[in-house]
Amino acid sequence: MPDNHWYRATRAAGIVWTALFASAVMTLVPGCTLPHAAMNRTDLQPFALPAADTGQRVEPAAAGRTQVLGQTRRGRSLTCVWLGDGPDRTLILSGVHGDEPQSTDVVRRLGEFLAARPALLQGRQVVLFAAVNPDGLEKRIRKNAAGVDLNRNFPASNWKPSHPRGRYHGGPSPASEPETQAMMGIVQEFKPHKIIAVHAISGGRECNNFDGPAEDLARQMSGLNGYPVRPTIGYPTPGCLGSWAGAVRGIPTVTLELPASAGGGPCWRANRDALLAAIQFRATPLASSIR
Hints:
Layout: H1 4-23, E1 65-71, E2 77-84, E3 88-94, H2 101-115, E4 124-129, H3 134-139, H4 178-190, E5 194-201, E6 207-211, H5 215-225, E7 229-230, H6 241-248, E8 253-259, H7 264-280
Parallel strand pairs: 3-4, 3-5, 5-8, 6-7
Antiparallel strand pairs: 1-2, 2-4, 6-8
Helix pairs in contact: 1-2, 2-7, 5-7
């Protein structure tokens, strides 16, 4: 009979890897596809998310459970993974822009790392939404299948109409896209104390960009990844997640901008400790954001 601690950790790591593989890894390898059934949460029992009104919890604390938040316009499942069951809650998103695959790779690696080390999740709960834009990731394009920049599609007060062919097109209306609705849905359901959105940026502009009451969190991350702390990324981002979650809802939100020139492995090694510190950081969201 294997050691119970080792067995639980290894099983949890396998479950998390399966879920992240199904929803994200196929988008990281050109030409690689998986059958749609591979992303069906019923295939991952007993770790599938129970009905929202059951009040059930997952044991042990490090066990991974998956939740399908919706589908893209091309029918791909939008899947997140829940880890831990503690009171301190962190939401980590990546793959919002399909031409930033290293962001998804970093969050996939983070999921494996956490699942194999249950002690890191003691008193904490983490939701990983690794492939927000699987249609874009498959084609290595910024926008989703409808040609919308998902990080300009949130119903923040600064959302504004834009040209449909523009690089930063925010959609025909706020929250018009299923991927945006999925992100908003998990924020509203999970009620995170802090949000980390992993992106990639070119031109040596990697940074820890913060919105809402997140400057202290961004500075702690900066001390570990060496990226500067920025209140903006140098150009307007109307309708972005940071505006909606951080500025409007008061949830401490850090957009971790990785160097676009680096692959997932180097980005993971450079940011592992910063991401772990973010999970352990005791953030203080505005009271209205966690009701």
